[in-house]
Inverse folding.
């Protein structure tokens, strides 16, 4: 589930029997994501219970400042990345949408995007290809996502061919 405004995006990744991940992204006018936060809750746990893990991320130049709290301990890290990196977790469509916006603003059809992986605090590259005004392909570490997008850059549907998954975007409760 994704809720988007001009200044932020909140996403909930909930797969039955797996931990729930809540992501919050602050958006800048240039389609960058200067700060983000996340919360991980146990599978089927109540939102009233303390999360298993929570964290925050801030990009400053070519550094990522990451704070992770779990089991009563907090780690603060400063990690080298690349200027302009976007935070990514798994198949995160928010980052794909922001990459579409950046490519359109730069008037390019292919864009190499530095991605700061929240799972391991490393920077990897993704490649966005605008295939037309309403479609794009995003490749990260060999994993391909093909999507349709609207005029604002929002994903309206798509496929992850290698996983045999189809993306269906619905309005309201899913």
């Amino acid at each position: 589930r994704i809720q988007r405004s001009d200044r932020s995006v909140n996403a909930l990744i909930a797969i039955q029997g797996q931990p729930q991940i809540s992501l919050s992204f602050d958006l800048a006018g240039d389609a960058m994501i200067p700060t983000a936060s996340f919360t991980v809750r146990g599978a089927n746990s109540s939102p009233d219970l303390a999360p298993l893990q929570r964290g925050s991320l801030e990009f400053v130049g070519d550094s990522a400042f990451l704070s992770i709290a779990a089991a009563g301990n907090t780690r603060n890290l400063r990690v080298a990345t690349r200027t302009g990196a976007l935070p990514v977790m798994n198949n995160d469509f928010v980052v794909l949408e922001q990459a579409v916006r950046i490519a359109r603003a730069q008037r390019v059809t292919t864009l190499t995007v530095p991605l700061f992986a929240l799972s391991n605090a490393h920077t990897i590259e993704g490649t966005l290809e605008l295939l037309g005004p309403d479609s794009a392909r995003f490749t990260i570490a060999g994993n391909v996502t093909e999507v349709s997008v609207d005029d604002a850059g929002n994903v309206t549907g798509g496929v992850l061919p290698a996983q045999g998954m189809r993306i269906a975007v619905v309005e309201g409760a899913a």
Residues 93-106 form the longest helix (14 residues).
